[in-house]
C-alpha cells in the first residue's frame, strides 16, 4: 500500500494517476472528502481505500505493516488563510504526527513544504538547509510550512528516508477547484476564453517592465515524476529538503503568449495596477536552484513552459475529459 494524503487535491490526485501508471494500484487516499468538486479529481483512479483525514492515524495503527511509502501532500494551501489555528493544526501539528508515526513504523516519508517559505527571496532560492531558520515567509501559510521544516531539521530521530519538497509555481490538470489559488495558466485560459483578451498586473518595480515579472513555473507532471524518483531511490543519505521547480524563471508575458498560442487565438494583452494591499509583498522573481535534486541522480529534463502550457490547454482544459 502507498498512502497519499491530500489525495483529492491538485498535486495529490495527479500523484495517484502517476502511481497508477506504474501499476501501483493499492493506494490509500487520505483527505477531507466532503468537497464534491475536489472528489472529481479521483474519478477513474485505482484506489484501494479512502480514509478520512482525521481518522488516518487510527487507520495507520492497524495497517502500518502493509504500508510501503507515504506521500503527505495534504495541507491548507491558501496564501490568503489567516486563521493560524487552522494552519497550525493542518500544516504543522498534523505533519509532526505524520513524522513521528513514520519513525515508529519505519515508513519512508515525502511531505509537502513550499517555495512560499522563501518570502521575497532575500536569501535567494537555494535549498540549503542552513538558511531555513533565517527565511522570512510573507504570509501565515508560508510561515506554517517553514515552522515545520525548522522543527524537522532539529529532530534527532528521523524517518528511515524523508524528503520535504518546496514546490514552486505548479500548474496543470486537477487544479480546477482551487479558485483564485489556481495557476495563472488556468486563469489565463478562462479569461481569454471569455473575453479574447488577458489582463496582467503592471510592474511597480523599475527593474521590471510590465508583464516581465518572473516565476519558476513547473508542470505538475514534472512534479510527480520527481516524487516517483524519490520513492524509487529513497536512500537514507539523500534525506533532506529539496526544491521542486525547473530552475528557469519565465515571465508572465511568456506564459500568457503561450496560452494564446495553445488556444489558437490572437494575442490581446493589457495591464492593470497591482492591488495596493499586495503590492508591498509582491514577488518579482522566483527561481528554484535545482542542483540538489540533480546531485542525487534525477536526470529527466524539465518540461518547457511552452510544452507544458500546450499540453495542459489542448489535452485537459479544452478537453471533455479534463481530469
Automatic annotation (TrEMBL):
Molecular-function GO term, any one: NADP binding
Lineage top rank: taxon: Bacteria
Transmembrane region(s): none
Required co-factors: NADP(+)
Matching Pfam families: Epimerase (PF01370)
Cofactor binding mode and count: Binds 1 NADP(+) per subunit.
Pathway(s) of this molecule: Nucleotide-sugar biosynthesis; ADP-L-glycero-beta-D-manno-heptose biosynthesis; ADP-L-glycero-beta-D-manno-heptose from D-glycero-beta-D-manno-heptose 7-phosphate: step 4/4
Top-tier EC class: isomerase
Matching InterPro entries: Epimerase_deHydtase (IPR001509), Heptose_epim (IPR011912), NAD(P)-bd_dom_sf (IPR036291)
Reaction catalyzed: ADP-D-glycero-beta-D-manno-heptose = ADP-L-glycero-beta-D-manno-heptose
CDD domains on file: ADP_GME_SDR_e
Annotated GO biological process: ADP-L-glycero-beta-D-manno-heptose biosynthetic process; carbohydrate metabolic process
UniProt xrefs under SUPFAM superfamilies: NAD(P)-binding Rossmann-fold domains (SSF51735)
Described purpose of this protein according to its UniProt entry: Catalyzes the interconversion between ADP-D-glycero-beta-D-manno-heptose and ADP-L-glycero-beta-D-manno-heptose via an epimerization at carbon 6 of the heptose.
Subunit comment: Homopentamer.
Entry domain remark: Contains a large N-terminal NADP-binding domain, and a smaller C-terminal substrate-binding domain.
Entry protein name: ADP-L-glycero-D-manno-heptose-6-epimerase
Gene field: rfaD
